[in-house]
Amino acid sequence: MKQDSPDYRDAGLAFGAEFLFGSATAAYQIEGAAGEDGRGASIWDTFSRTPGKVLNGDTGDVADDHYHRWEADLDLMAELGLEAYRFSIAWPRIQPTGRGPVNEAGLAFYERLVDGLIARGIRPIATLYHWDLPQALEDEGGWANRATAYAFADYARLVGQRLGDRIEIWTTLNEPWCSAYLGYGSGVHAPGVTDRAKALAAVHHLNLAHGLGLAALREVVTNDPGFSITLNLHVSRPEGPSGPEAVRRIDGLANRVFLEPILDGRYPADVLEDTAAVTDWSFVEDGDLEIISGVPISVLGVNYYSSGRVRVWDGEGPKASADGHKDGAGTPWPGAAEEVEFLEQPGPYTAMGWNIDPSGLEELLVGLHERYPELPLMVTENGAAFDDVVEDGAVHDAARTDYLRRHFTAAHRAMGRGVPLTGYQVWSLLDNFEWAYGYSKRFGIVRVEYETLERLPKDSAGWYAELIRTRRIPEAPVAS
Prior knowledge:
Elements: E1 20-24, H1 27-30, H2 43-48, H3 66-80, E2 84-88, H4 91-94, H5 104-119, E3 123-129, H6 135-138, H7 147-163, E4 169-174, H8 176-186, H9 196-220, E5 226-231, E6 236-238, H10 243-263, H11 269-274, H12 288-292, E7 299-303, E8 308-312, E9 340-343, H13 358-371, E10 377-381, E11 390-391, E12 394-395, H14 398-416, E13 421-427, E14 446-449, E15 454-457, H15 459-470
Parallel strand pairs: 1-2, 1-13, 2-3, 3-4, 4-5, 5-7, 6-8, 7-10, 10-13
Antiparallel strand pairs: 8-9, 11-12, 14-15
């Protein structure tokens, strides 16, 4: 049994009784039933149905059909021993146009889901926004429009009034970096806008929505839930003498522009300066920062998949863009697109082309703890896509199992360095619609045959079930 191995392949490391093991999904990626029971259109419905936006023209119209198969999926969670389930609520199911009264059929679905989780001893972690903005709100400007933040607060209040006695943890937003920069900057995610100023306006309005949403929830919930936001914080490695400056810029745009308003009540001065040529930030109004930081979060959700390597471009030759984004109007890095090079990381890689770097997770968790020592953390997404193959009725996904083993080891090591890590939600429970990649990438520990919608637990699911049962990292994959 190796301990503290340099490759993070430790085994036998124990997690305490209070550590919360679970898995995560998102509504648009698994639910399907896009036009049923009064659900309105979302920006992802529109985007995925636009030719050329999603690989193979795939949409979430059916996805995993979780909307109709939720009871069997909950039974599967119970069989795996999941202690928590992080799911998202589809705003267009609750308010088809993003405003107005509740769509009773939509909210009733989530009531059944939550009650089903509780009946099986699984704690519900509800994310209010995982990218499926009602299209009607986008038609008014979407997250670049301040009014969307106030519409979000109304939506949060409606959901809190009905589910506010049963949710364990409320998460306002999932990965606002993606919503703002990929949705309004690079345009590779819905709604497909390429406008640097709008991307930064979206950053602020998402932050504002978080603050307004938590205030609304706090008014109506009747239990004692946790309040949270989930961020996909970037781990950037400096390359060469200019590396630290490149890291500063990326850290500002990706991490501190969300962390500091929420936790410190301010925007980073260097980010405002870096982006001054893009926008004057006049969309930040008096009192906004007090709203954003007004309700303290009780746990910070951390999503982590890979790390990056950066330096300042010297202006000579083609500029490297290993993050997959090119220069020009469409960029997720307003204020850094022309300055920073993203260099290729050493492998191995997942099927997404992302490097596998468990040390980055340890570094991220320890760094957050050093910055905010009293703040509990939870890994709310971590997992990997690989090109799975069914052999004799099984999926022997040794690469995924190895990935999870190494990242659970990294999380455990961070805890050994004092990090108050409260849980780990594996991404994802099911293979699903992977946004612009359609159904070509499989992240699930459970395989979904899209033609039949049959579920097949992979070897990684068996390994994870063993980890949960023993509360120790297994040394080798356990056959499912």
